[in-house]
Amino acid sequence: MGRFVVPVRAAGTLTRMRLSDFWDRMRTELGAGYAESYARDTVIAGLGGRTVQQALDAGEDTKTVWRAVCAALELPPSRR
Question: pTM of the entire structure?
């Protein structure tokens, strides 16, 4: 994990979120022991009824997946 960079359009600008940054954020919010389990087992409506891992495996932008996780977890804007 962590060597890929996925370009994402956000608010009209091209931004990037490395896969390693995505997983760092997941571990920060959910804990090192639970982040991978959450990604594997939790279906998120904002990802089209897929899990985080299914969305990533399908090539979904990491920033799009992160935003869906933030919405599902109801994270405050300061932690998104």
Answer: 0.79
